[in-house]
Amino acid sequence: MKARRIELSLPIEAATLPDPEAVVPVFHAFIRDDALGEVLVDVARYGHVKNAPAVVLVGHASDYVIEVTPEGPRLAAIRKRGAAPDDRRLADVAGRLLTAARLVQAALPQIRFRTDELRLRVLDRLNAPNSPATYQQLVDEVLAFAGGWLGEVALEHGPDAAGPLEIRIRRDQSDPLETLWARLP
């Protein structure tokens, strides 16, 4: 994948995270404890802004976001600079997402992540404009990665034509985070 800025997210079972603000002290602890092994700068709250992330852990190379979408809350990892080589880019962002999810779940055991639907967004309109042609160019690469990691999956072009390119990765089962971690290429 040529795009440098990519986001991968997991849904959170809505009933297990009634208030995204609960993650703020966890994200602060990630900074204090160097929990993610990368430069993390600040935690920002945007819960008061409509259609915006609720809480953002801002880093130099990556951001981690709790967002509340119409489908429910999600945890996203956004790789924005210092990207892995093209052939490792998806595995890199998946590893960052799973690491953050496992740490959030360890700090807040009531939170449960669903692994039956991941959302990949390519935040690079120059290298990956949101078009059917770009989607078709990426399908084989995403399918090879996701299928090798998650098993049988179905891909779907995201519904927001005005937003960044979005690929929804769906599967029939929701495995524990540890299972996905063990299978990560």
How are the elements arranged and paired?
Layout: E1 6-11, H1 24-33, E2 40-45, E3 55-59, E4 62-69, E5 72-79, H2 89-107, E6 117-122, H3 132-150, E7 154-157, E8 165-170, H4 177-183
Antiparallel strand pairs: 1-5, 1-6, 2-3, 3-4, 4-5, 6-8, 7-8
Helix pairs in contact: 2-4
Description:
The chain has 185 residues and is of the alpha+beta class. The chain has one domain. Helices cover 30% and strands 26% of the residues. The protein contains four helices and eight strands. An eight-stranded antiparallel beta sheet has the order 2-3-4-5-1-6-8-7. Helix 2 runs antiparallel to helix 4. The mean pLDDT is 92.
Structural class: alpha+beta
Give the biggest sheet: 8 strands, antiparallel
Shape: globular
Low-confidence stretches: none
- Average pLDDT reading: 92
Order of helices and strands: EHEEEEHEHEEH
Strand content: 25-35%
Helix content: 25-40%
Query: What is the spatial order of strands in the main beta sheet?
Result: 2-3-4-5-1-6-8-7
The value of Rg in angstroms is 15 Å
Domain module tally: 1
